[in-house]
Amino acid sequence: MLLVEKYGGTSLANPERIRSAARRTAELARQGHQVVLVVSAQADTTDELIAAAARVNCHGSAREMDAYLAAGEQMSAGLVAMAVEALGHPAVSLSGWQAGIHTDGVHGNARILEVDTTRIRRELEAGKVVVAAGFQGIGPEGDVTTLGRGGSDTTAVALAAWLGADQCRIFTDVDGVYDRDPHVFPDAVRFRRIGYENMLSLIEGGAQVLHDRSVELARDHGIRVEVLSAFTGAPGTILGDLS
Ligand code: ADP
Ligand code: ASP
Ligand code: MG
Question: What's the DSSP call for residue 128?
């Protein structure tokens, strides 16, 4: 099977968590699956990069902010690929443009228009685990773009859609989607399944557990997405068509 699996920043916050993601991935590859990982920047990296940029120029252009911020996910991709290699399985990290993610030219909030899957397919056919940097693509002028905060979810769903993946999983620091933020409301209730429109309403109400465009893309391409804990791997919430 072809699997797309995304790890968020907290899930890659330190070497042990990176090794844990790599172990799961290497095991799936050993079982004969083709695996495409999508990774976010580690923990608070993106916030730190934004703060660092502001210390140099608090009105930096959107183009240069994208060039700078995209590095966070690229560093993660390199690290995760090395962690998979350390387990004896070949892996290759790809930036957004290398992964064929084509976007419009709206720096800081670019929309994915198309994915050219040629390079990813070549690497998968060569037996490698592909580790794609989330949150970024290449715009019409050939410049690096970013997809908006939380955009790595959208990278994962886009890759699942254009690759025709059998499964799309989003690993995060909670064990699924709840009716309210479980970190704020201890009595929040977890959904086993949730439809696209209900998920979009939750996001509109402030639930930033998934990037809104990832849900729209999943809905438009009929992609079923599982949101689950990177720490336990226990079954999470299935986002999909409930009709
Ligand atoms: P990642 O780094 O994995 O992308 P995010 O921080 O973007 O993770 O999203 C996960 C966070 O979303 C959780 O830690 C949780 O606090 C928050 N969250 C807000 N609303 C919800 C909700 N309704 N269900 C689950 N998590 C929620
Ligand atoms: N690193 C980016 C952010 O913090 C993208 C993501 O995590 O999805 O918003
Ligand atoms: Mg997120």
Answer: P
Site to probe by mutation for ligand 2, drawn from 11, 37, 73 as the one with most ligand atoms within 8 Å of Cβ, is 73
pLDDT in the model for residue 233: 84
Q: What was the pLDDT predicted at 202?
A: 98
Cα dihedral 144, 209, 229, 12 sign:
positive
Neighbours of ion ligand 3 (CB under 5 A): 8, 150
In whole numbers, what is the pLDDT of the chain averaged over residues?
Answer: 98
Q: Which domain holds residue 79?
A: 2-239
Which residue is closest in CA terms to ligand 1's atom 25? 177
Ligand nearest to the CA of 151: 2
Query: pLDDT per residue over 126-165, tens digit each?
Result: 999 999 999 999 999 999 999 999 999 999 999 999 999 9
Which residue has a Cα nearest atom 22 of ligand 1?
181
Contact in structure between 100 and 91 (CB atoms under 8 Å): no
Binding site membership of 98 for ligand 2 (Cβ less than 6 Å)? no
Written as one string, the DSSP assignment of 16-51 is HHHHHHHHHHHHHHHTT-EEEEEEPPSTTHHHHHHH
Once rounded to an integer, what is the mean pLDDT over residues 6-33?
98
Report the CATH number at residue 185.
Answer: 3.40.1160.10
- Global pTM value: 0.98
Q: Specify the number of domains making up the chain.
A: 1
State the Cα–Cα distance between residues 19 and 103, nearest whole angstrom: 31
Q: Which amino acid is at 150?
A: G
